[in-house]
């Protein structure tokens, strides 16, 4: 098994990520998140929100609708120009992304060996209908990016908060793309979450702001524990640039299936605000409070994919130790990211005094962090189970606990154990979590 296959298997076995619609044979490029995958996603989103929204005075949060007026997508250029190049097999009629075929030097259908068509352009926006009639007039699109909800609320934020330039609007939410592609687990899926900022600036500042945001994006990835060594920057060629962008840099990560986009940073100019102003008839210009001059702010867009972040974290966290007495697989998540922070074990599952004490500890800690309970099998096995889900610390209640109110605290990475007073546990874990930020 290669590393990705090992991670896919661990994710399924231990409750991180399950194949979508599995009991019906699956639905390609869709995945469901189990208890630990859900916690991980929540942690990443909370850390992102903390970093970019809560800890800054110049960025405003938003939660826009998934369904927007189709006029939005017309004005933004997505209906005409948001296109993926594809080739279709003339025998089995399966479709493949041209970049996937080119990357692998494939000239014939990878499924049946049939002849491939010329390149065709395909719009990956999902369509659905509002109301009881299914026709052109009732067609709406599931958003393929969160950004547009931000542009169409630009005036609302200005009117409510009167922010001076530069300022940003941030949003986390689901986006949908009808992706025609080969797997790679959660790297490319039909629905995914984006964490995006539209940062509004004066045109003359764009290069400085672009460089600043590029550094910020890398800093954020590092703060989560993503390995800097695996990150590279790649600027889009003119041919590759999206219809709205003047400059785009991908922050790429060395995935096991190739070095590919983790995050994207784009200079969207004043393209979106200008188009929405012209098409809606609503003036979306910003007024300089001193000179009273009206102008369209330019935009720098840092865009982060949640699932790709999760995949990079899983890949960086995956460790295997083969030494006889230490044989184990463990996920070395930074404690702030780990889905469970502490696991609590009574040494024996049938000793009521031990269970009572362990339950008390569970109740004391659980209002503060996600805690696991495990009383199944011997302690060694329980440690291995927690290692596999990346729990940084385990607490064991044993017979000495009943005498001296101490417990064993075991560290995931060093496997070292220490005795700690029950009364000190909460502070100890709070401190350890706080220290792990550095
Ligand atoms: P790619 O070139 O891989 O198709 P993209 O350039 O179309 O990606 P963007 O439009 O820049 O992607 O979207 C911003 C971010 O959203 C990406 O950096 C990525 O993290 C995430 N993303 C985009 N499409 C998907 C998808 N189908 N599945 C999961 N994440 C995605």
Describe this entry's structure for a reader.
ATP binds at residues 177-179, 187-192, 261-262, 305-308. The chain is an alpha+beta fold and 438 residues long. 33% of the residues lie in helices and 27% in strands. The longest helix is centred in the first third of the chain and has 20 residues, at 35-54. The radius of gyration is 25 Å and the shape is globular. The relative contact order is 0.11. The model has no long low-confidence stretch (mean pLDDT 95). It binds adenosine-5'-triphosphate. Adenosine-5'-triphosphate (ATP) binds next to strand 10, strand 13, strand 16 and helix 10. The site of adenosine-5'-triphosphate has 13 residues, from strand 10, strand 13, strand 16 and helix 10.
Q: What is the rounded distance between the termini?
A: 35 Å
Q: What percentage of amino acids are in beta strands? A: 25-35%
Radius of gyration: 25 Å
Q: Could you say what the CATH architecture of the largest domain is?
A: 2-Layer Sandwich
Individual helix count: 14
Low-confidence stretches: none
Numbering strands along the chain, what is their spatial order in the largest sheet? 3-9-10-16-13-12-11
What is the makeup of the main sheet? 7 strands, mixed
Oligomer: single chain
Mean residue pLDDT: 95
Based on secondary structure, the structural category is: alpha+beta
Cα shape = globular
What is the CATH superfamily classification of the largest domain?
Bira Bifunctional Protein, Domain 2
Q: Would you state the CATH class of the largest domain?
A: Alpha Beta
Bound molecules: adenosine-5'-triphosphate
The figure for the number of domains is 3
